[in-house]
Amino acid sequence: MINELYKVICERRDNPRQDSYVSSLLQKGADRVLKKVGEESCEVLLAAKNQDPSALTHELADLTFHLLVLMADRNIPPSAVKSELKRRFGTSGLVEKANRKNQSERQL
What we know:
This protein is mainly alpha-helical and about 110 residues long. It has a domain at about 1-75: MazG-like (Helix Hairpins), CATH 1.10.287.1080. The protein is about 80% helix and about 0% strand.
């Protein structure tokens, strides 16, 4: 479903339609897309805090959708995220975080 939804979002990006939420959101620019991702993130947190599984599921779907819009806006396909998760799989989160910290320190 993620790949199919991403393809539709890209289609709306590449061939804007007046009746499309995605087209209108993307036409408003990156700041608007980022604002929506932030809003949806907050709504996920509130639904989780309130321990409402139905609301949390709804908000997670909204956040996922808006993350896909952001990805399409930045030309990052779901396969890139999948590859990054695959690369990290089997590595402790603590080790991964330390590796990223060490890498960013070396770049300075």
